[in-house]
Amino acid sequence: MSFTTLGLGPRLLNGVSQMGYTDPTPIQSEAIPHILEGTDVVGVAQTGTGKTAAFVLPMLQRTPTRQGVRALVVTPTRELALQIHEVVRDVSRHTGHRSAVVYGGVGLQPQIDKLRRGVDVVIACPGRLLDLHSRRAVDLSGVETLVLDEADRMLDMGFWPDVRRILGLLPERRQNLLFSATMSPEVLKVVESTLHDPVRVEVSPPTTPVDRIEQSLYPVCRTQKTDLLVKFLERREHTRALVFTRTKHRADRLSKQLERKGVASAAIHGGRTQGQRQRALEAFRSGRSPVLVATDVVARGIDVDEVTHVINYDMPNTPEDYVHRIGRTARAGASGTAISFLAAEEIAILTEIEKVLGSTLACEDLEGFQYAPREVPSAERGVKTAAAAGSGRPRTRTGRRGGKGRAGRRAG
Ligand code: AMP
Asked: Of 77, 103, 236, 300, which has fewest CB within 10 angstroms of its CB?
């Protein structure tokens, strides 16, 4: 499936390719044709699946310009509102749509001024939108498309009364799109009361392709992670290595450290503009920067074939993130390697990850690396001492033996 066959017009396609998207994600392939037809759609999809573009692209295609507010996106947080607005802005550079983002906690006047100048699309948090409406700064009586994004969170955060009030300000006849990571009974109730004959599109989180991914752990003390990474990359086993850090600050710092040590790399995270992210991805895709340092926020959008190695410089916060991260390698039938640097303070999350995987990850040491004293990661793992390299510390190399070093089944 390609974007061209989904029914999007040339201007939007232009925007899509400038954003660096080559193929639609599953939620995009499924949702876009229905939305273009004008059908109400319920999308069950988490952040990271490409859901924003899945509604923004067809919504813009159906939204006329210069006729007042015709499309409204309601979302629970300022963060999300800004992210959605960024996608809208990127794409509408070619379509001429004008958009405004409104959320609380900042001055009203700039938002009022922006709305008064005329916009086609409004992205809003509920409370501020109602506030602006009561001040007659925004007219919602012409809205043709409504998007309720992250409906489950909106309910959790107690925004439903506000959202219901907003619904009362909209014309009866309109297209409704609702996205939610989960389909709780509360969300279902909203769907039933708000949407008309909706089509449900759903993407399940990617299944673990563990079979094709060689996974292993490299116990190391926190302060040696960068040196270990450099040593690892110097072995040049990788064609493209995707390196994950816990925070955007750490991503930037690591990328700089790598540059100083002569390793060409790019960094990509939520703090970067769409343009910067796109350039980093391009450099990675083309092979100019064979190392890409990333955070989880953007991981799910990284759709590059031939990532030979995923390196967890920092362990992720959740098992789901681990699965998503390692799923960036071994694409399109290829095999891949996922290695995780494990510092003592990351053992708790490792335990959770292994529970989800249903297997224990094998420990490895990098040959020839001068290890500083390490804390005992786990007695059963076999890497017991904190000795320096070459001092006869016990090793497990099960990761490379038999069966291409897959995560071994947990015994018993
Ligand atoms: P979302 O689920 O909307 O938060 O999107 C997650 C990430 O995926 C964002 O960084 C998007 O820029 C990226 N993304 C969305 N659609 C695509 C696509 N078709 N190809 C590559 N990346 C995408």
From this structure: 236
Burial class of residue 124 in the structure, from the number of CB atoms within 10 Å of its CB (0-12 exposed, 13-18 middle, 19+ buried)? buried
- Ligand 1 cavity residues, CB under 6 Å: 21, 24-25, 28, 47-53, 298, 300-301, 303
Range among 301-305, 327-331, 335-339 rated most confident: 335-339
Q: Write the pLDDT tens digit of every residue in 120-134.
A: 999 999 999 999 999
Q: Whose CA is nearest to atom 9 of ligand 1?
A: 301
Establish if 208 belongs to a structural domain.
Answer: no
Q: Which atom of ligand 1 is nearest to the CA of 49?
A: 2
Overall average pLDDT of the 319-339 stretch: 79
d(CA 93, CA 279): 18
Is 160 in the same domain as 240? Answer: no
Domain that holds residue 29: 3-202
Tell me which of 23 and 167 has the higher pLDDT: 167
Q: Which of 116, 149, 122 is nearest to 45 (CA)?
A: 149
Mutate to test the pocket of ligand 1, among 300, 302, 320, 325 (most ligand atoms within 8 A of CB): 300
Same domain, 272 and 334: yes
- CATH number, domain containing residue 141: 3.40.50.300
